[in-house]
Amino acid sequence: MSVPLSNKIEHMIEYAHRWNEPALSNEQIATELTKQLGRTIEPAYIENLRNGTTVVIPRDIAETLCALCGVTDVAYLLPHGDEDVDLDLRVQLWTLARDRGVQHVAARAITRDKLGELIADLQALPARTR
Are 45 and 54 in contact (CB under 8 A)? Predict the structure, then answer.
């Protein structure tokens, strides 16, 4: 089962900043996409992607947004089948590891279920304070 586009975008934006910095705003994202794509992308469009009003994203915007957020596989936003589920779990894992101050995570050849368990374990850790 695929992950809703709005959830993936939220997870990506949360992933895309350092621990002690705020996430990018809709205005910042729109400005950068406008610059990269050479055409105007409105902050309201970003808001619509984030709140689920817009449920399809053009390939050029998906590629540029992924690059902006440090997600190297555009299949995250434009999946074939359910490959986005695995990518989404990884984005959640790395975001939680950063936010909990975890220095190293070894998760080679891990199943979805085990990855879900690892995410739950990280969620149970206290949030990083410094």
Answer: yes
Give the Cα separation of 124 and 130 in Å (integer).
18
What's the CA gap between 44 and 11, in Å, rounded? 19
Per-residue pLDDT tens digits for 87-103: 888 888 888 988 888 88
d(CA 78, CA 57): 8
Residue pair 33/64 in contact by the 8 Å Cβ criterion: yes
| Mean model confidence pLDDT for the chain | 90
Which residues have C-beta within 8 Å of that of residue 32, sequence separation ≥ 6?
24, 68
CA 2/CA 86 separation, integer angstroms? 10
pLDDT score of 12: 94
Q: Which of these, 13, 19, 107, lies nearest to 69 by C-alpha position?
A: 13
Q: In this structure, what token pair is assigned to residue 102?
A: 């975890």
